[in-house]
Specification:
It is a single chain. This protein is mostly beta strands. It has a single domain, classed as Immunoglobulin-like (Sandwich), CATH 2.60.40.420. 11% of the residues lie in helices and 34% in strands. The protein has 6 helices and 23 strands. Strand 1 and strand 2 form a beta hairpin. The structure holds copper (II) ion. The site of copper (II) ion (CU) has 7 residues, from loops.
Length: 396
């Protein structure tokens, strides 16, 4: 009894740590609500429906909005004063929350549109428009989709604008996130993290690095705070200003340089792991245009792909279990240095950081790295199970 109580308290502490403002909160399923009943932070959006046949539907809520001003670069040497952007968001943050289900779960997502524009939802990893898409939600309205999580892995979700009209700026302005489907045949326990890359094309950034507006010699004091919004010309030219990691460039990168330092983020959080422990990273590339050449500097990685071969008699689709019974992890035995993640795609990656020290998860397109696409991983014996940066913890 004492141990159960202790575990409950630890879970609640982890939950509270992860759910203050500013960064993505996790979408909690109704099943997890049972464990976290004492937390008032997330209970509001959690519901559970038990049907006559005892099946449970997990319910998630997303609030679409297009009026949030977010900080997409901290005040640093490259962008004195920092950079603000008029974002479009699910649940108020870039990215939206990680939606976490188990393979075989039936779940539903209700999207409330609290914004001024038409929004929508497009779930990757789900088959059939009636399950994967909500194409139009007018301001003030809400719509719900229901789906079954057949395929394990990590996938992107995003806004399609008004039935694809505006999909470009709705994604580029932040309406995206990841859906994680834990496999029935689970991989070994690992410390897990949620990371989403995304590009920014802003009208508020006129002269590249070392400035945030038009003044090349800008200082934090002299810079005029200009709130940017989506820049169609930069988007068409494929010239992003920044590459965000979980909603901000340089969010987890304190500096470049040892002898000659470039300050990137004096408040940077870093990812902590124990040397030798198995870690698992759910990495989404929201794009909307560029590829991510992902690697951990000074470590090797292993990608996890699942056997989703459904080359079976379509008649078997009536039988819930027959579709995926042969699903099992096909993790490649071999390790690689780098993996390409196309826009709109995602990868489940495992890594063991063999010795103490700093590692850097990054996009090896170095131009994009300079624009913010990196994060520091610190391997230290002082790491614990619940010391994730805010919003990067994955629920079970
Ligand atoms: Cu939208």
């Amino acid at each position: 009894m004492g141990i159960i109580f202790l575990i409950l308290i630890l879970q609640i502490i982890a939950l509270l740590v992860l759910n203050n403002d500013g960064s993505p909160i996790l979408a909690f399923s109704s099943q997890e609500m049972k464990s976290y009943l004492l937390s008032s932070v997330t209970v509001r959006s959690l519901q559970q429906t038990i049907h006559n046949d005892h099946s449970i539907i997990k319910k998630f809520t997303l609030i679409a909005d297009d009026r949030n001003i977010v900080k997409i670069s901290p005040d640093n040497t490259l962008h004195p004063g920092g950079i603000l952007y008029k974002a479009m968001t699910y649940n108020g943050t870039i990215p939206g929350p990680a939606i976490v289900v188990n393979q075989g779960d039936v779940f539903q997502i209700t999207v409330y549109n609290k914004g001024d524009l038409v929004h929508s939802l497009d779930l990757h990893g789900i088959e059939g428009p009636s399950h994967a898409l909500i194409s139009v939600i007018k301001p003030g309205e809400n719509r719900t989709l229901k789906a079954k999580a057949e395929y394990p892995g990590v996938f992107m979700y995003h806004c399609d604008g008004d039935n694809l009209n505006g999909i470009w700026d709705h994604i580029a302005s932040g309406m995206y996130g990841g859906i994680i489907v834990h496999p029935k045949n689970e991989r070994p326990i690992a410390k897990e993290f949620y990371i989403v890359f995304g590009e920014i094309y802003s009208t508020g950034i006129n002269s590249g690095l070392f400035t945030n507006t038009s003044n090349m010699s800008a200082t934090a004091a002299s810079v005029k705070k200009e709130i940017g919004s989506f820049d169609m010309n930069k988007f068409l030219a494929n010239k992003p200003d920044l590459i965000l990691t979980n909603g901000m460039a340089y969010k987890y990168m304190p500096f470049f340089g040892t002898i000659s330092k470039i300050l990137l983020n004096k408040n940077a959080e870093v990812f902590k792991v124990k040397p030798g422990e198995l870690t698992r990273w759910y990495i989404v590339n929201a794009g909307p245009r560029g590829y991510v050449s992902f690697n951990f500097a000074s470590d090797m990685i292993r990608t996890v792909h699942y056997n989703t071969n459904t080359d079976i008699n379509p008649d078997n689709y009536a039988d819930n279990n027959s579709i995926i019974t042969n699903a099992h992890p096909l993790s490649s035995i071999s390790k690689v240095y780098e993996v390409t993640i196309p826009p709109g795609s995602a990868e489940e990656i495992e890594a063991i950081f063999p010795e103490q020290g700093s590692y850097v998860g990054n996009d090896h397109d170095i131009g994009r790295f300079l624009q913010g696409a990196g994060f520091v991983v610190l391997a230290t014996d002082n790491s614990t199970s619940y010391d994730h940066p805010q919003g990067t913890w994955i629920s079970r």
